[in-house]
Amino acid sequence: MLNFNYVTDAVSIGLYVLSWVLIGLLVLKIYRRQQVKPRWWKAAVATLAGIVTFTINWELSGELVKIPILPLGVWILYGILKRKEDRWDKYRSFAWLGFASNFVFLAATLISIPLYSLVYPESDAATHIADADNASVVAIHPSGEDGLILDKDRLIDQLPSMDQEKVESDVWYNQMYRKSEGKRNKNERFPYQLIGVSSKWGSGVKPVIYLEDDGKGILITTPDEQSYFRFNQSILQEGMAR
Amino acid sequence: MTGKKKAIIAGAVLLLLGGSLAIYWFYFSEPNALPGQDQMITEINGLLPEADAWEIQETIMVDNEHAVAPFTSKDGIYGVSSWVWKHHEWKLGSVRTNGEPKIWKVDPDDPATYRIVWNIDPAEESLDTLNFFFVRERYWSVSGDRHQYDPSIQLKKEVSFREHPYGVMKLPDDWTAVVESGAEGNPREVVHRSYPGFQWIPLDENGEETFLDSAVNGSSYHTGLVEEEHMMIVNLEEVE
After folding, report:
1. What is the pTM of this model?
2. ipTM confidence score
3. A190 near A212, Cβ under 8 Å?
4. What's the confidence (pLDDT) of residue B183?
């Protein structure tokens, strides 16, 4: 089963809900077809018990992939029910359906990874800057000027035409080091941060966005990745005194 | 229904009602006024006899349920006590006799509730300005073709010591936004930062560094109610 602590994006949650709907439909189908029917809620409990499984967990692109191995729930249920004749037969299909549900969840996880990249492309700035109406700029380093204002229109206008460039962390670091005359932190290539920016609805990521000293570059930082974009025109404006 | 059954049901309902009321009163009712000066002093000295508290200078509310009371002793201690409303009682959360600035993380998950709290002897002649900083070191890494570059962060706030020998200060809005966005809590970054977080420098009239024995040395007592973080004193060189 997917874990909600792990997953907060709309794609995974949507697929998770779909998985449950599918399982529900399958339970209904088996229930209707079966000759000797248990009470409906007992069938549901048997299904849920069947979901209990020993899994091997594996992290793939930030998602927890659980591969079902041992049908523990099915075994336990069998152990309890076998004592009375014929009782197990009533519940067997439901318990095994529960175990099979794990494969539905597994498939959902595996589908969600490429689907997520399709809906929320990591390298597309529009994923991270979807709504800039409440955006503003903060100087995070003394080499940045205080009291500058973010030109929101210029930011929004240029979003589609930005150029993605390489993040060259080692080069930048060394440049800053040389410019700082032996003092490590005197200069900073990205002395501003954009705040109040919303990422695309449902992406589940809150990126940190740094702004370059010339106002023409942004460095978008998510827990997984960094991407660097350049504009033609600066998005910073000389402000009135705040 | 027989009379007996009715009585049992009525009793159960009353018990439930009374129980919920008691729980509400215990956990959720509005705070009372803070204890008076004398009671505060008794409690402070009970928790930390070295504090030797004599006078409460002021009581400063952080919010409804959290308060700070800077205090002095007869022989020149300038200390800080923190109070928390919990279980229908104002509880003494922490006492310290060293009044250097520290961060009280009232709600550790919400930087907007962080407060810088200090109380320094106004007779400290050399001290003129308190410089507060939030600092993160620049960092880079490359693994394969994945690059990572974290800009250096240096936020600064000056407070006049002459006007505020003691105080409870909310972080500036910029700081809150930056800290909130993950500058501090990002687990990836905890590993490499050598001087994480909040720092300060005591400065004299000429903007030179000075040293404060009285505010830095002392004893303290903490209960689990107050999460206080040390603010390291750094050199001007490190933040220029």
Report:
1. 0.81
2. 0.82
3. yes
4. 52
